Amino acid sequence: MAEHSMDLVIFGIVVALRIVVPLFIPKFPLPAMILAMIIDAADQTIFQSFTNLDLTNYQSYDKALDVYYLAIAYLSTMRNWQHQVAFDTSRFLWYYRLVGVALFEIFHVRALLLIFPNTFEYFFDFYQGVRTRWNPLRMSKRVVIGAAAFIWIVIKLPQEYWIHVAQLDTTDLVKEDLFGVPVDTGFGEIIRDNPLFFVALVCFLAALVIGLRYLIQQKLPPKDWNLTFRDHPSDVSVEALNQQVRSMRGKVFTSELLEKTVLLTLIMTIFVRIVPGTPSSPWEQMVMIALLLILNILVSEAVVRVMGWSDQAVAGSFVGTMAVNTVIVALARQLLPGDRSFHWTAALFFVFMISVMLTFYDRYRPIYLARFGDDRLEKRIADQLGVSR
Prior knowledge:
Elements: H1 2-20, H2 29-50, H3 58-80, H4 84-107, H5 111-115, H6 119-131, H7 141-165, H8 170-178, H9 187-193, H10 195-219, H11 238-248, H12 255-274, H13 282-307, H14 311-335, H15 344-372, H16 375-388
């Protein structure tokens, strides 16, 4: 009994980290994103090594949590990114991958994940890495597009093939082919039996760090500021944001509403198909998505237009969408025919993530519009071209 309780504690800590850490991506983009990626890569290894839990359903939660932290990363670009070309590139990469994931969940063809690689994740890291010491506006359009192309072709295509098409496990490959031990052998035992290899590995990593430091200090352009990992929309004032929100109150059909609709439709399509306990038949899933989509948009738009850009609006948007989504899920359970298996934990998990993402969108959309919208866009592009020359 005590062992089972400890298993649940470990499971709860890991899942809590996967939920909470992405919430820091908007303010601390690079460290929070890298930490989220590390936890994502290590979670199942931790469960297998330190617990005896049945992880059959966790695969579904794992996919949903991947979409969750990547969605928050994309939404944070609305808040932080001042480079129009970089933002547009990241938006394309994000939606391109999201479409691929949705198609994969519908058709279950693994090659789709190779055709629609997750280039957005590393491109986000690239931009935020530049942002730690340099002003990203110094990057020309060629540098931005070139970085995205390099990540896509050289890094992500081989990685996506390795993981999703060849379905090779790096850990198993290292244990079996490199060290010649069974896959269930612990790394502690491997290190103990191969001390010279790991000494050499540590020396290589140290040399790599020294080389990168030399490259940064001697070969790259002079820094624009001291090393910083915090990001903020310093170019947009609160007055400009409130003015932007006020200008939105008289508009109904906007490009931002279209994007929100596309974003929620794709994410809900993915979540409804992977989260356990959601409706199983296609038409039930379509009804669920339509209800969630329409009511979520109505609530979030009403809160933003009435309360403006404030901390109270953020809290109101989150509480309102959480309440609406919970009611929709509860009604769907009662009204929709078919499979009555239902998991409230999974439902609340689904509701929470949708509500968080929608709240972030409503919070950061006015920043994006105040920075790039209307006549500001033309001026911004001209400024960037001036900087890039």
